[in-house]
Amino acid sequence: MWRGQAQFEDTRQHLQKQPVVGQWKPLAPSNRGQELQQPEPSAKDSAGGDENQSVAQLNVSRLRSSSVEIREKGSEFLKEELHRAQKELKLKDEECERLSKVREQLEQELEELTASLFEEAHKMVREANTKQAASEKQLREARGKIDMLQAEVTALKTLVITSTPSSPNRELHPQLQSPSKAVFRKGHGRNKSTSSAGAATAASQGLPVEPVSSEFKEVDSILLAEFQAWKESPTLDKSSSFLERIYQEDVGPCLDFTKHELSELIQAAVEQNTLTIEPVATQALPVVKVSAIECGGPK
User: Where is this chain compositionally biased, Low complexity type (predicted)?
Assistant: First the structure.
């Protein structure tokens, strides 16, 4: 490009240095409308002008050819630059696409990792809650058993204290009871605390202890709670849930006679401590026949 401009400048300066073709004559006034006189070119001047014109045309053709060459080279250069830029752009697009895929893959892996971490955390929390609930349940059961054992120990201590040589407690000394009462006691012994107390007493006296059945191993938490509530404020009021249960499960079945009036009288006498029990005479008593109506039997 710079080469063509230099040639164009040289040609322009060369044309400026060429001499002027022909001569002009001065204008002079005439008497009768003299006409202007123009110079007449000579043959030599005509030949020089043709030569100069051919040189100028040659220079112009050279300039045109150089400008065309410059344009072609410029267009080729621009095409090469455009092609190179397109290649670079294509490479950058491929790189961007690859990086986008890598980013999507990383995001997916991160999402899966986060989900697995949350799932593992939830699983650990769930297992911890389950273990905690099981531990709390075992703790409550253990405390219930401890409270039951403490209540049995307290009852046993009370029975031991109330037993004296002059008036031995028949609960602690079953051998002092009559055979009939012992059989009745054995058949009616359903209370867990008294059964445990009797077993402990028998063990302390060196007597053979009967194996405890499976029903004695289970602790009734509701009954224990009612007993503890009654123990805090002992009362003989039947409105207490513990005493109500005792009357329904223990006292009621023992006094469930056919004649309800007799049952009520015996229960009232026991509550008022006015019931007297006399031993059976060794001699045969006269048999008194009582009608079935008085005993509450069928008419």
Answer: 193-204
Question: How many CB atoms within 10 Å of residue 259?
Answer: 13
**Could you tell me the CA-to-CA distances from 150 to 159, 171, 180, 192, 276 in Å, in that order?**
14, 19, 32, 13, 33
DSSP string, 187-229: HH---HHHHHHHHHHHHHTTPPPPPPPGGGGS--HHHHHHHHH
* Range 146-152 contact pairs with CB under 8 angstroms and sequence separation of 24 or more: 147/224, 147/228, 148/192, 148/193, 148/219, 148/224, 151/193, 151/224, 151/227, 151/228, 151/231, 152/193, 152/196, 152/197, 152/200
CB neighbour list of residue 29: distance below 8 Å, 6 or more residues apart:
none
Count of CB atoms within 10 A of residue 227's CB? 19
Is 95 in contact with 26 (CB distance < 8 Å)? no
b/e map of 194-211 (b: 16 or more CB within 10 Å)?
bbbbbbbbeeeeeeeeee
Helix (H, G, I), strand (E, B) or coil at 40: coil
pTM score, two decimals? 0.29
- Longest Cα–Cα distance of the chain, Å, equals 210
Q: Give the span between the Cα atoms of 199 and 172, in whole angstroms.
A: 10
Written as one letter, the residue type at 177 is Q
pLDDT digits (tens, 9 = 90+) for 230-278: 888 877 777 788 888 888 888 888 877 888 888 888 888 888 888 787 7
Task: Give CA–CA dist 228/225, Å, rounded.
Answer: 5
User: Sign of dihedral through CA atoms 132, 134, 137, 142?
Assistant: negative
Cβ atoms of 195 and 210 within 8 Å: the answer is no
